[in-house]
Specification:
The chain has 6 helices and 10 strands. The protein is an alpha+beta fold and 228 residues long. A hairpin with a 2-residue loop joins strand 6 and strand 7. The chain is globular, with a radius of gyration of 18 Å.
């Protein structure tokens, strides 16, 4: 009976189309069908394009054409070990890098809590970071506000940002983003989702030619990896 119910459920899922971003993929499904098909790269399609034009892609201020961006579907593991469907928009030039990195992190069970487009947060980077959402493309200024962010080119990604904050000392105090992440500036403390030099996440991005914000001399951006 259990086998029959599972097969019925499988046929229903396949008939309804693929899993959606944010969905947990049951382990029995992965055992039968594998996980490779969840890692895909495509051009920006109508549904995603429409969503981006309302939020992350400000047409009048865009620094790259949308045709130079790519949409990724991947799997990532949450802290409980569930396989979750994730999504990213990035520059075409780093799409294969990110696909390979995310596949290696998934295979190793490296925890990433959420991976949804920043558009679901209205393009609000602060809201996305506070929700510990991993994201890539967003048409915006850098966190310091001094220049156009590498995210505007789709060439930067923020991983588990709540637990890996941005920090910069100023004459009037300090800037910490997202708000409420001060606790995680103590990089010697033990807490989930922490990125540190030498761990798997760090090594994979460095092997693919990315720079890590945690190694910057002027301030730190522990969540941030970028490529030029």
């Amino acid at each position: 009976m259990a086998c029959f119910l599972y097969l019925t459920w499988t046929v229903t899922v396949m008939a309804q189309g693929r899993f959606r971003p944010g969905d947990i993929v049951p382990e029995p499904y992965l055992k039968v069908y594998g996980y490779e098909k969840f890692f895909t790269i495509s051009k920006i399609n109508g549904e995603v394009r429409a969503l981006m034009l309302q939020n992350s892609y400000k047409d009048e201020a865009a620094v790259v054409p949308m045709e130079s961006l790519r949409y990724l579907r991947v799997l990532h593991c949450d802290e409980d070990g569930n396989a979750v469907v994730g999504e990213l928009v990035c520059a075409a030039s780093i799409a294969r890098d990110l696909e390979e990195i995310m596949k290696a992190l998934f295979e190793a069970g490296y925890p990433i809590e959420k991976m949804r487009l920043v558009d679901y947060y209205g393009g609000d980077d602060e809201a996305s970071m506070r929700d510990n959402n991993t994201s890539c493309f967003n048409q915006r200024l850098s966190t310091s506000g001094a220049k156009v962010s590498r995210h505007s080119y789709g060439l930067a990604i923020d991983i588990n940002p709540l637990y890996n904050p941005y920090y910069k000392a100023k004459a009037f105090g300090k800037i910490v983003r997202p708000a409420g992440s001060d606790l995680y500036l103590n990089r010697k403390a033990h807490f989930p989702y922490k990125i540190q030099k030498g761990d798997l996440c760090y090594r994979l991005f460095k092997e693919h030619g990315f720079r890590w914000g945690g190694e910057w001399l002027s301030g730190k951006d522990y969540q941030h990896f970028e490529k030029h």
